[in-house]
Amino acid sequence: MTRRGKVYALALAVWPVFLVTAIVMGLIREAVLAPVAGEQTAHVIGTLGFIAVMLGIIWGLVSKVAGNVAQRDCWLIGAGWTAMTVAFEFLFFHFVAGVPWETLLADYNLLAGRLWVLVLLTTLTGPAAIRRWRCSRERRGGRSGARRVNGTETKG
């Protein structure tokens, strides 16, 4: 398998981690946050918390593979994750769990305070955004304050 193929395989293996994380965080939201803060506040806190955890997972993946993939690959990974997420959400929750289409679609209504679309935007853009940020930071010299000038690394 090529390096790029291994990256895609790893990215595919990361998606179930998102799924398990979402389920665990949903259970915590319902058991702990909702009784104390109310359903809508718990929804907001839970969604933003999940996005933060998801960005941490994406950061870990990008840190591991950034040198082996192009920005285009990161967009493709994000698009694949988003497609799998939407397919799972609609296919599993409607056909297996019996959730009505109206209820599923209601989670996409930002005007009603539903933030699920932000999860999907993070899933789609996260890999490319993090890779771009990491690469630009590395070009500037990373954490050490070092930077490249005329091909030579300098401090400052």
Task: Write structural notes for this entry.
The chain is mainly α. Helix content is 76%, strand content 4%. The protein contains 5 helices and 2 strands. Strands 1-2 form a two-stranded antiparallel sheet. α2 runs parallel beside α5 (116-140) and α3 (71-96) packs antiparallel against α5. The chain is globular and about 45 Å long. The termini are far apart. Mean pLDDT is 89; it is low at 144-156.
Considering the chains and any ligands shown, give keywords for the structure.
156 residues, mainly alpha, two-stranded antiparallel sheet, 5 helices, 76% helix, disordered C terminus
What order do the helices and strands come in, and which of them pair?
Elements: H1 3-37, H2 39-65, H3 71-96, H4 101-106, H5 116-140, E1 147-149, E2 152-154
Antiparallel strand pairs: 1-2
Helix pairs in contact: 1-2, 1-3, 2-5, 3-5
Structural class: mainly alpha
Largest sheet: 2 strands, antiparallel
**Average pLDDT level:** 89
Shape, principal axes of CA atoms: globular
Fraction in beta strands = under 5%
Radius of gyration: 19 Å
Total strands: the figure is: 2
N-C termini distance:
41 Å
- What is the count of DSSP helices, taking H or I runs of 4+ residues? 5
Placed side by side, the strands forming the largest sheet appear as 1-2
Order of helices and strands: HHHHHEE
Question: What share of the residues lie within helices?
Answer: over 70%
- Unreliable stretches: 144-156
